[in-house]
Amino acid sequence: MADADDAEGWTRLRGRKDHHSAVNRGERLHRRVTCLLTAGLIPLFLPVTGCANTCTAIGWFDELEVQVAGDRAEAVDRLEICFDGSCYSGRADAPGESPQLEVVAIARSGTDWTVSTSMQTPESIQLTAYSATGEVLAEQETDLSWKRVGGSARCGGPHEATASIAVGP
């Protein structure tokens, strides 16, 4: 019986060895496939993970600071800005409101006005300052010099410029 026990023990042992060997082969195959897939997929994902030279900004706002100066600067109730065939205006009592808010927004802070445009940098603008009664206090055409303040030369980015209009007697 000793031989039978030894044979039975050997079969159980050999069965386990075969079982573990099969599991180890499966694990090794799984590891190899995983490594190959990983190595093959990495180059596909590099361009979308920022390792490539891609532009991340989809859109931005450009800002124009308009300084109203002169004896009657405080009397300006509405500033109108015209460029590229369209005109936009902002009122002192409704900062940030504009007929086409999604394109241009105009806000007032003291005698200065901020004009925000959606990715628009016109070369020149026409400024008109109005009183609360609708009187034209000043009109002026101004050339602008925009400076990029974000993004990159390749991808673009937000710009800033300044302009001024004198309102006097």
Strand content: 25-35%
CATH architecture assignment of the largest domain: Sandwich
The low-confidence parts are 95-102
End-to-end Cα distance: 125 Å
Based on CA inertia axes, which overall geometry fits?
elongated
The largest β sheet comes out as: 5 strands, mixed
CATH topology of the largest domain: Immunoglobulin-like
The chain-level mean pLDDT equals 77
Strand order of the main beta sheet, please?
Answer: 4-5-1-9-8
Whole-number total of structural domains = 2
Number of strands: 9
Work out the oligomeric state of the chains in this entry: single chain
Detailed description of the structure:
- A hairpin with a 2-residue loop joins strand 2 and strand 3.
- The strands form 2 sheets. This protein has a 5-stranded mixed β-sheet with strand order 4-5-1-9-8, with no helix packed on it. It has a 4-stranded antiparallel β-sheet with strand order 3-2-6-7, with no helix packed on it.
- About 5% of the residues have low confidence.
- It has 1 helix and 9 strands; from the N terminus they run αβββββββββ.
- The chain is 26% helix and 35% strand.
- It folds into 2 domains: 47 residues; 106 residues, Sandwich (Immunoglobulin-like), CATH 2.60.40.1120.
- By secondary structure, it is of the alpha+beta class.
